[in-house]
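Field guide to reading this record: the first block holds the primary sequence, the second block holds the structure written as discrete tokens, and the final block holds curator observations. Each block starts with its own label. This record concerns Winged helix DNA-binding domain-containing protein, catalogued under organism Actinorhabdospora filicis.

BLOCK 1 — SEQUENCE
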Amino acid sequence: MALTDRVLTRATLHRQLLTGRAPMGAVAAIGHLAGLQGQEPNSPYLALWARLRGFSRDELTGALHERSVVRGTLFRGTQHLVTGDDYAWMRPLIGGSLGGRFTRDLAAIGKDELAEAVREILAGRSLTRPQLRDALLERWPGTDRIAMAYAAQFLVALLHPPPSGVWNSGRAVPMVLAEEWLGRPLTTAPVADLVRRYLAAFGPATVKDVQAWSGLTRLSEVLPVMGLRTYAASDGRVLYDLPELDLPDADLPLPVRILPDFDQLMVSFADRRRVMDDDVRAKVCVGAVIAPTILVDGRVAAMWRLSGKRVFEVISLRHLPAGTRADIEAEATALLSFMDVEDGEVRFT
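BLOCK 2 — STRUCTURE
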């Protein structure tokens, strides 16, 4: 069955809870979404505000303190917020794909020896990355400081407990052993489980899309034998999907949505044309930075930034009809209220 670009976009946004704010709690939503990008502490809060009805910042902060949601290095070696239940099996599954460059820089030490040292140093306590790095350098002086700091985090399952990841938290990142923070051992699961979770949150998608999100490779040997439904994209690519999930109508109306920097909708596909054209992507995705965006009819139409602490600046990337500008202004005004910005102003540039 052939799938039009319009339907593909709507299917993705529907599964990302962006076709209408869902009456869902934060923990359930993070589980449904297979996690949230969490490089910047405020981004997951803004991502949930865009997706959930009645979401409050205290709800996510409480979940982090209660450990039902955790923050740590996960897919593609980047910070994610996932449920504690999901982290327990997702981290072992993708652990081998993390930190290849840094661990190669420390080949003389040996992965097992370094990992054991990290566990010994962190047992029963929390340290920041520089503190852990310095403790390791006492054992292996003269070692590359940057490689040491990051290799430890990739080799061993570590989590960043609050205040890390809490709204407006600082840059200091405490680290603890994941098993101690969760109060249970990590488990194993088949790769197919991870594929299904991805498709439920981002599908339909290609093998390369799943690999781009997860950081895993050789999934072309996995998806074709999972009994998945297949579609043909407009350019001929094979799209896989869960057979029990339906596709939305091509005429499903899509509301304006304001997304934070590093939102997973922008980074979880090898081919991002389902949500933005290539020329728009060149402006939104610059190096390792993913700008905050505004969706109009399901596609990136503008970027935004908070200027001078109270001015919501809209940087248009394509023509915005007058009615659309009013919708953006209404959504931006609501977002400023969520962020506790008083006397906020929306400005188009």
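BLOCK 3 — OBSERVATIONS
The CA atoms of residues 203 and 241 lie 6 Å apart.
The chain has 15 helices and 15 strands.
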